[in-house]
Every structure is written in C-alpha cells, then in structure tokens.
Amino acid sequence: MKTDHLSETEIQQYIFDKTNCNNRIAEHIGVCDNCKAAVTTYQLLFSEIKQLPNPIFKFNLSALVLAQVPQKKPIFSWSDLFSYFMALILILAIVISGYLFRGYLTAILPPVFSSLLYQMATTAITITSFQILGIYKEYQRQTEILNIY
Ligand SMILES: [Zn+2]
Questions:
Q1: Distance 49 CA to ligand 1 centre (A)
Q2: What is the pLDDT of residues 68-122, one digit of tens each?
C-alpha cells in the first residue's frame, strides 16, 4: 500500500537542511498534520540528544584499540633471505651445469645451431626471470592486501 505521506528519510532531510530540501517536502509538511507531528517529534528527539553529556569510559579506549592494530612487518625477515638464497642456489646450479656441460651440448648439435641455441637459452632465461619476478611481486601485493605476516 502506497501512502502519500513523507518517508522517514525525507522528514529527516527537511529537519537537517530545510533550505536545500525538495519543495514538495516543505509543501507537504505545511499541509499535513501527521508529517508535521513527525517533524516536531524528531526535532524534540534531536534537541534532547544534543543535551546529553558525552559518554565517558572507565577504561582507556585508545589503548585497547591500539593493542589490536597489527604491527608493521619488519623490513628484514629471515624467510625473505632464505627465499633469495634458494633462488640464488637454483640460478647458480643452472648456470654452472650449463657451463660445465656446454661441450656435450655443442657436440650434439651442428655449429650453426649451437650459437642459435645460446641465443634461445638466453632469451628463455630472461623471459622466465621476468615472469618469476612478476609472480613474486603479485604474491607480495596480495599478501599485503590480506594482511598476512
Ligand atoms: Zn503527510
């Protein structure tokens, strides 16, 4: 059932900002006793609320809130250092084994293909490195969003 009376939101809008509210609202309040009574009730309620003293807590509210705020992650962490160390070992293992066994690889392929192979390997390693770096940055960004330390 649709009523022609003003909504609670419209009445409160009229009370808080009479100059900028819709003309329809002001005109309706001027002619409708029901809505005019609601306006009077709201005005009385808001004036009583303004007269109430501010609440005073018997405990230190800011200390309780600050105790629950997570502390910032320290800049240095052992898990990051371990990750970098393992990545360095992996890269060194690939580079050293490639250097040590380069003779076998070039012996298998014709000389034309060996230089092409080095170029392809360099390109593949470069692209893979950037992709791993991108994945790691995305992982760090998502863990910061989740606030997991
Ligand atoms: Zn009305």
A1: 25
A2: 887 777 777 788 888 889 999 999 998 898 888 888 877 776 777 777 878 888 8
**Could you tell me which residues come within 8 angstroms of residue 32 by beta carbon, excluding any fewer than 6 positions away?**
5, 6
Instruction: Report how far residue 114's alpha carbon sits from residue 85's, in angstroms, rounded to the nearest whole number.
Output: 31
Q: pTM higher than 0.70 for the full model?
A: no
Interval between CA 43 and ligand 1 midpoint (Å): 16
C-alpha span between 59 and 57 (Å, rounded): 5
Overall size of the chain counted in residues: 149
pLDDT, one tens digit per residue, over 32-64 is 999 999 999 999 999 999 999 888 888 888 888
- How far is Cα 15 from Cα 40, in angstroms, rounded to an integer? 9
Which residues, 6+ apart, have CB-to-CB distance to 105 below 8 Å? Answer: 98, 114, 117
Question: How do the domains of the chain map onto residue ranges?
Answer: 8-52, 71-146
Measured in Å, residue 47 CA sits from the centre of ligand 1 at: 22
Please tell me the distance between residue 38's alpha carbon and the centre of ligand 1 in angstroms: 9
Tokens 């629950």, residue located: 68
